[in-house]
Predict the 3D structure of the following.
Amino acid sequence: MPAYHSQFVQVPQKVGNMAMAPLRTQFKGPASRESSDYDIIDEAVYFFKANVFFRSYEIKSEADRTLIYITLYISECLKKLQKCSSKNQGLKEMHTLGVSHFNIPGERGFPLNAMYAKPANRQEEDTMKNYLQQIRQETGVRVCDKVFDPSTDKPSKWWMCFVKRRFMDKSLSGPGQ
């Protein structure tokens, strides 16, 4: 069975060789607003449990690179949420993770530099950094909504069982983090 690929192949903008897909978000950033009920973050969360089992992933469009980044970020979110006992605490952790320093394609610590193009200039670098931060913040909120059971305010074991899984055998955080 092949991995799931993004359906957002026709995107209005690209940054590097990554699709800058519209987002349904309340966070400020360069992404245009999505008017439908389904965006690339919803797609990544929906396909996360299936895609996380794949060690390789064939990139068919620029949107797949965005999907890969979000999938890796969801893995990072789950690592942080495993230590949280309530949704409120989880949302605080997700905010901290979303705004903390992170590497972008072309920087030394980025794990997938072979698949992503380095930004062409300083303006594109700033746009990419802001877009990825916008994705990180919105993804953190949506993952919290999925992971925490509203009746018990505890993380779902059906999400926490994916904490140790590594998509493409990669991680956005460095070893030991």
Notes: The helical segments are 40-51, 62-81, 87-99, 122-147, 157-160. The first strand starts at residue 14 and ends at 15. The chain has five helices and two strands.
